[in-house]
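Re: [help] complex structure
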Amino acid sequence: MNKSKVFSHIGKYAVTYLFIALSVFFIIVSGLDINYVASQLLLRLNRNAFIVLALIIPIVAGMGINFAITIGAMAAQIGLLLTINWGVTGVPGILLAAAVTLPLGAFFGFLIGKLLNKMKGQETIGSLILGYFANGAYQLLFLFIFGTIIPLNSNVTIVGASGVQNTLNLTGSVGLYTAIDGIAHISFLTALYIVSGVLALAAVIQFVRKKISAKRMAATVALAALIAGVFSIPGVAAVVNGQHGREVRLPLVTWLLILALCLFNSTLMRTRLGQKFRAVGQSQTVANASGINVDRTRVIAIMISTVLAGWGQIVFMQSEGIGTFQTYAAHEQVGLYAGAAILVGGASIDRATNLQALVGTFLFHSLFITAQSAASALFGDSAVGEYFRAFLSYGVIAVALIMYAWRGTRQKKEGQMNLAGRDARGG
Amino acid sequence: MSERAKRKAGGGRRLTAVVLFSLAALLLIGSVCGYVLRGTAASQANLDKMRTSAVLHAASEGLVENIAQQARAEKLKELRADKDFRKRGLDEVNAICDAARDEARAEAEKMYSNPVVSDEAALENAIGAFEGVLATSGTLYERERSAYAALYVSLVENVSDWTDLADGATDDAILQGLADTVPEIAADENAHLRDGFIRLARAMAQAEQEKEAAELQKQMIAQMKGDIADWSAYAELDDDALWASLVEESSDLEAAGDFKPALLEAAKAFAAAAANGEALPEQAEAEQGAETFSETQVDYGYFTPTEELAKEQADNASAYEELKTQLVAIIPDLSGLSDKLQDTLRTNVETVVWPGSLDFTARYDAYMAHGAASVLAGSAAATMKLASVAEVLLLASVALLLLGLVMYGWEPLTKRFGVPRTIIALFFIYLCLLAELYNISVPMMLGNVLERMTMYGVLVLAMMPGIQCGIGLNMGMTIGCISGLLGIVFSLQFNMTGFPALIFACLSGAIISLPLGWAYSKLLNRMKGNEMTISTYVGFSFVSLMCIGWMLLPFNNPKIIWLLSGRGLRVTHSLLGSFAHLLDNFLSFKVLGVEVPTGGLLFLAFCCLLMWLFSRSRTGIAMTAVGSNARFAEASGINVNHMRTIGTVLSTVIAAVGIVIYSQAFGYAQLYTAPRQLGFIAASAILIGGATVSKARVSHVLLGVFLFEGVLVFGQQIANSVVAGGGLSEVMRIMISNGIILYALTQSGGASRE
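Output below.
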């Protein structure tokens, strides 16, 4: 790699590197037990990764950060409410909620897509405000329509008034708490060895099939060996294997779901539909000229994203450590946190990958866990940490938007120079 | 759209209009019939018959419920005696008991459903007499209660420090303090209420102290939570050992004092959670909303009746006794009720006999709610129903008429006023009609609207230069708002009062906002075409950054910082001692019982005039040209970036002044997350006024803020009378405010900008 390449790489991932540095700094300053941080981090990763991954398709399709995934979360919450209302528990309950989310999310996604098509170039802000608007509609539904026009059981409604209770319990006889997480667990170390083994094996197979070069294969195998090796050092392994504190264990099925979504995202991109997404994302004018129905493609992208976000919200709600369903607040920060997370991972307004989503979630939440303790260590006040978290979330989105717009303006200027004043920027 | 298609659409609309008109006429006929039916003797007789039945039903309701609850309790006892009790879950036990209760209730209802009335005339007379007494005493009661409520609200809203007023003070001193805040308390007609208010002041002082203690306790818990890295180590300790090791880790805890039990409790919860590998429990967070117009809940516990009312109530009691003897004669079981159930019985009967007014609908609804439907047979039921819905029909008819008119004149109307403005204006007119119907005083409401216009007017005006110079809706005006809040906090820090404080706050806010606005405009100049997205997030980020700032800035006036921790600004600052309502009270006068905030209106008018003059100046015209067509402006030799800078800085500075005016009208300055949504509120107001993302005029500001606040004020009142409990008006605010911004975005259509 030559010098200019290194610089452009650092420029591209400046936010990510900044966050890595901040995370390390915060973990050290906060003085939190590393075993605690590791277990919390993995917990939050399996809770949030699904929703963050749901953001990728609209980004590829050139629609920016889809803050309207909040609406997907609302669809899921309607599904969960009905599931609780009908008293279906465990895995069937989750499947039922997911089944209700599918048509609702698809329908809402269709409407969102139609609306966003009318505000091309302003999708990010449009979807944000649409989320706020939908929050009003959601409250209308949950406060004044459920329980009156749509009858519900008395165990979910407020007794003596209209509307759904503020908090619904998911534990106990409701039976939705850890319905997916609790199916099977695997120890972190075992999972790590399996993953690095598979990685190395895949590289060798690819090499034998002559898909990749020997150098690439060697690098991958070495990386896998390195990861496995690092965690074989007793000191490192102690962080996760329970010698100090608790053994870190992963909910197997949830991780399989996240893996499946990653595979879905990457396979979809290789299909005709995925090609269309990419074409529309790169240039709507070119895509239109090559016979792609631009508006329709964009609507499909948002529909898929909305449904996936809904399922992500179900994964989130059932996960360990949640236990209650905050009827009127659970969806509010979904868009903000997911959007910030994917941007931290190095995604931008117009490109994103699975890896960026996962890395971003990891980094974002590592700051989230440590911010309070770090702030109280630095400033003697943990409330500062609370505000710092909010600042990070908004700030990282602002920075990403600014960098994207900056690049756009620069490209436009160059284009203007080339085309002697003709506007080269598409919608 | 082709000419033909247009004509076709116009024809369709006219047809719809005709259909709407005929529907309106139909409903109007129905409504007239209803009003006529109300007057007939048969309806009155039916109504009386319903009243008798409803009273009997209400009387037996308490009995039935009593029997049902007893059955439930017995079932529970029986279950407890059972040896399998522990095996059953709580839900199952509840289900069994509820079933038993419902069964008993059904049986009891059957038993009391058809009481034998021997002397119907006597019963009806007794009810009639009771109704008569209740009607006079009830009106008086309502009037006194509402006078009390008004005083209560103004006290609760205006007293800034109850502890200061009431803690350890004598009755006379408290009364003096109360009268200083709300002079009406000293008036003779309120003499009977004074003792109650003194008690209220004491209770409030105590509550305030408790709240502060709770806040401190919360802070201490948070501190302790952060201080200790590994909670799981503490799981197995007993109380004393746990406390000792906690104090060792976090030395501040030595001074815990009374909070020790709560801290221990929290520590145990943390330790238990950590030991189980769960996330540490979070403390409930008090979220500060942007809109702080929550109405004060009036507590009637401190209400004392006047002598006149007390006498009326005594009459009331004797009339009730009369009625009760009649009822006991019919349902003998009533005599054996406990005191508590006797009270319930009386309340039940009273709500039926006196449902707030003797209006036809009110009576009908109250009787129907207490099972009077059974006395009406066949056609009588239908006619009574029609008579009772006459008002609703009338209202629906007017609504349809309006809708029809709009459909008929849709094209000229929307061409002239634009779609959203037409819809909101119509909605406003309809709300005014509804207010009339629900006996809400329209002039009073208009007074509220005026007050809120002075509050939000300047903030909305801040949107205008932003739109004119081409950056669109300046959501980042929160930067200016925060500068203004800093100005206010400075004036509080230096203990300034009166007009000097107001002027100082405005000026220092404006000065702080200048460099910030300049830097912000430089940023936006590099981001052409994406301003709204970026300004929104820059605004959000700045608000959260300043949240940290409010915590850490070295203000030290004990009046504005957290007393207990000795640092960090408080969230809400009362401006009562400094400049609350100063402008609004300046030259203010009363018209039709409405307080007109003259000073505030004058100031708003002055600002608007300045803005109007500016937009007619050379610079102003050049700026407007940049906003409406940047490329054309550039071609005619205008420095686009320079104009955008001027507009953005102007917008930021006006926002800084605007928040000072807002705070004086509100009476409080709110820091931290409170300013976050102000940009959205201002944007929706100016859009409702008819502005677009590239064009705005002063008239849009004034009309917009009037319509937006008008719809909110009326909507809130009406929503509260239609649906018990707030919420609906908040939902309406969210949907209108964000809906209008969405609409504006679809109109700007991305590519059409630039």
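The first helix of chain B runs from residue 3 to 39.
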